[in-house]
Amino acid sequence: MTAPKVPDTPLPAIQSVERAARMLGLFTVDEPQLMLSDLTARMGMSKATVHRYATALRNAGLLRFTGGYYTLGPRVVELASAALAGLSVMKVAGPYLERLVAATGETAVLSVWDGEAPVVVRVDDNSSRLVRIVVATGSRLPQDSAQGQIFRAFMERPGADPELDVIREARIAHYAAVVDGIAALATPVFQGEEIVATIALVGTTSSIEADGEMTALLRHAAENLSTELGFVEPERRRS
Predict the structure, then answer these.
(1) Structural domain containing residue 173
(2) Is the pTM of this model over 0.85?
(3) End-of-domain residue from the set 33, 64, 79
(4) Got the DSSP string for 128-171?
(5) Is 216 part of any domain?
(6) Which of 203, 194, 195 shows the shortest CA–CA distance to 123?
(7) How many beta carbons lie within 10 A of that of residue 153, not counting itself?
(8) 149 forms bridges with which residues in the sheet?
């Protein structure tokens, strides 16, 4: 005999906020649409409870419901724009990316860390090219991407991973497996003493190399952007 299901009880406000945030986090660039059954399975709660959360989020403009699918609502776009506007690096990075594109002819990408992985927040590409490499703003990148390696190198404990130690010292990460024939080269951007972003060049594997003039141009752009954000090299601070 199956035991009767215990009805859902009212949740404390903080727990409700956490669960609502977790529900919003289920929507990604790869899965922008989810059905109620998808949300129920992934939230691990009863269908009735998930529906109540979804309804509340719809009323707040954070979810939209169309054709049987939920998607993120217009209020999320407003909040995302406000969040990006609050990033100092977003306010000043534009000219650096534009000059990189002009100097290299490649696609320049600015990414920030969302707590778990790099997220693309700005892309500048070479519009004069017959074939263009498109990187979507909002894309969440793998931790082993060039950008992911840079973030990990400066956030994880030194000595834990020899490969990251090499990247930390060189301030350059190269990744030749973005997709077939496409590679990326990334370097850190600092504000104060913390890494706040990465700048990457994305192009064909034949054009993106781990050293040479392109590396120097990329590193120079990131260093100048970091300086504008208030970063001073440790040896310069000691002098």
Answers:
(1) 86-238
(2) no
(3) 79
(4) T-SS-----TTPBPPTTSHHHHHHHHHHSPTTS-HHHHHHHHHT
(5) yes
(6) 203
(7) 23
(8) none
